[in-house]
C-alpha cells in the first residue's frame, strides 16, 4: 500500500512539474517595420513555426510585436533574425533584402501604417 501511495505521489508531482514549465516563458516587445493587417498575419504565422515561441501578437498601429517564448529553446536574437528573414526590420536589425522584396506592395516600409 505504501508503494502505491509513493507511486501516486511521484506521478502527481511529475504532472505538476510539466505544468510548471509554462511559468518559465518570457516576453519580449520588438519594434518592426510592419504597416498593415497582412503584415500582422505574415509575421505571426512565420513566428508560429519557430522553435520555442509560444505565441506572438503584432499591434499594427504601434508596429510592435509581443512574443512569448521559452528561453531554453530560443532567444531574442533568434526571434529578431526570424522577423528579419520574413522581410521586416526588428528593432535595430534591417530586414533581409530578398525576403523584403517578396513582400506585397502594401507591406513595404515606404507605405504609411494602415489598418484596413
Automatic annotation (TrEMBL):
Residues 23-91 form the HMA domain. Residues 1-20 form the signal peptide. Keywords: Signal. It comes from the Bacteria. InterPro entries: HMA_dom, HMA_dom_sf. GO terms for molecular function: metal ion binding. Coiled coil: none annotated. This is Heavy-metal-associated domain-containing protein. It comes from Rhodocytophaga rosea.
Amino acid at each position: 500500500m505504501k508503494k502505491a501511495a509513493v507511486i501516486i505521489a511521484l506521478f502527481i508531482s511529475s504532472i505538476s512539474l510539466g505544468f510548471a514549465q509554462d511559468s518559465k516563458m518570457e516576453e519580449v516587445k520588438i519594434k518592426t517595420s510592419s504597416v498593415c493587417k497582412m503584415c500582422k498575419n505574415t509575421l505571426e504565422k512565420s513566428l508560429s513555426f519557430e522553435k520555442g515561441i509560444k505565441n506572438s501578437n503584432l499591434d499594427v498601429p504601434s508596429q510592435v510585436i509581443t512574443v512569448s517564448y521559452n528561453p531554453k529553446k530560443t532567444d531574442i536574437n533568434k526571434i529578431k533574425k526570424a522577423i528579419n528573414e520574413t522581410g521586416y526590420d526588428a528593432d535595430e536589425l534591417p530586414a533581409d533584402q530578398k525576403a523584403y522584396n517578396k513582400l506585397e506592395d502594401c507591406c513595404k516600409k515606404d507605405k504609411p501604417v494602415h489598418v484596413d
